[in-house]
Amino acid sequence: MKPIYVTQPTLPPLEEFLPYLEKIWDNKILTNGGEFHQQLEQVLCEYLGVKHLSLFTNGTIALITALQALRITGEVITTPYSFVATAHSLLWNGIKPVFVDIDPITLNLDPAKIEAAITPQTTAIMPVHCYGYPCDVERIQQIADNYNLKVIYDAAHAFGVQDKSGGGILNYGDLSVLSFHATKVFNTFEGGAIICPDEKTKRRIDHLKNFGFVDEVTVVAAGINGKMSEINAAFGLLQLKGIDEALGQRKKIDARYREGLKNIAGIRCTNIGEHVANYAYFPIFVEQNRDALYEKLKANGIFGRRYFYPLISDFPMYRALPSAAAANLPVAQKISHEVICLPMYPNLTNEEIDFIISLIIDFSVT
Ligand code: T4K
After folding, report:
1. Mutate to test the pocket of ligand 1, among 154, 181, 336, 342 (most ligand atoms within 8 A of CB)
2. Ligand 1 atom 26 nearest Cα
3. CA dihedral (178, 181, 183, 186) positive or negative
4. Residue whose CA is closest, atom 37 of ligand 1?
5. What is the pLDDT of residue 365?
6. Which residue in 1, 19, 28, 54 has the most C-beta neighbors within 10 A?
7. What's the 183 CA to ligand 1 centre distance in angstroms?
8. CB atoms near residue 223 (< 10 Å)
9. Where are the domains of the chain?
10. Is 266 left (phi over 0), alpha (psi -120 to 50) or beta?
């Protein structure tokens, strides 16, 4: 059997991409805000129900730029339970991350614990909609308003996620950052975006991702090269055509896993309410011997991943921070020692899902 990875990109038929390539070859505009780049920004705004969106070369550069755009300094409160890029974006800006524990249900920053971590140096909160599960956006905003803090959401997993009333989750906070990496629900091979509510901020972000250039002779900031190329943008336009079908397929896979894994001793699935999810990942929590199950799956060609183990706060560049102490992060520590993300992508077959479930059942009875 071929290996089954935790994620796998959905690729449209190759021949459907050829007309886009021909156009790029004809125009000879390969990057720097070409036709496909402009089109993708527009259609993504419509699809996601957001006002302004600026495409980036990847999610990490977008996070780094988002912090620059709002001139964030000092300390930023964030979660240890995420991909390491979240906190790295702070270090790249000379900002001190302050880790706060997560909620055991949503697996996102626990709003009840944020206030205690605020100091006179705190300028912002950077929560993550982990696995695409929405943060408690209202409570986070309330705290931010009370303490005059900015909120930048790392929404790398949250493409198309809705809030409780059906609005886009990306409309909360000052900025939200998406990743369009190959492993994501919507991908452009590599890519990302910053979502912002107003024209002025969008202009600043657009300048920052283009070295700070406003026109041929004017540079207004020490910008970076964060531009998405025409090939990536063209692929995004093609991908978007199949996104609803892909999301529907993910939902079915999620349901099949849940049905197959219910009532298995020592194995827990998440429980956040299905109306808000985009089924980006399928984490399970193994009460005992998580690594033994992880290895058993691997031995059978199933390459699940322990997203997110180790915690960011346990990596060498963070672990000396007072907020990184294990005693400060008991929920995140526990979850990170129990989690395995099972394969989740639209082309996963029922037979493959059932095989994975059978391996887990077999593990639980031995
Ligand atoms: N914030 C959060 C919360 C994030 O999760 C991420 C990225 C970021 C920020 C940063 O966004 P980007 O700068 O990446 O746009 C993967 C992804 O590379 C990373 O984008 C993602 N989060 C993270 C959760 O997962 P790895 O190191 O686990 O990737 P890798 O190469 O081991 O891929 C996982 C599996 O996917 C492989 O076993 C095989 C499969 N795969 C992978 C690639 C690259 C494919 O089938 N095709 C492919 O092209 O980080």
Report:
1. 181
2. 183
3. positive
4. 5
5. 82
6. 54
7. 5
8. 20
9. 14-241, 243-364
10. left
Taking the centre of ligand 1 as the mean of its atom positions, its distance from the CA of residue 63, in whole angstroms, is 15
Q: Which amino acid type is present at position 94?
A: G
What residue owns the CA closest to ligand 1's atom 15?
A: 59
Q: Please write the tens of the pLDDT for every residue from 31-86.
A: 999 999 999 999 999 999 999 999 999 999 999 999 999 999 999 999 999 999 99
Query: What six digits make up the tokens of 144?
Result: 């931010």
Which residues line the pocket of ligand 1, CB cutoff 6 A? 5-9, 58-60, 82-83, 85-86, 128, 154, 156-157, 179, 181-183, 192, 303, 305, 307
pLDDT tens for residues 200-235? 999 999 999 999 999 999 999 999 999 999 999 999
| Torsion sign (Cα): 253, 254, 260, 261 | positive
CATH number assigned to the domain covering 14-241: 3.40.640.10
The domains spanning 14-241 and 243-364 adopt the same CATH topology: no
pTM, entire model: 0.98
**Widest CA span of the chain, in angstroms?**
70
In which residue are the tokens 């300048």 written? 207
Q: Homologous superfamily of 243-364 in CATH?
A: Aspartate Aminotransferase, domain 1 (3.90.1150.10)
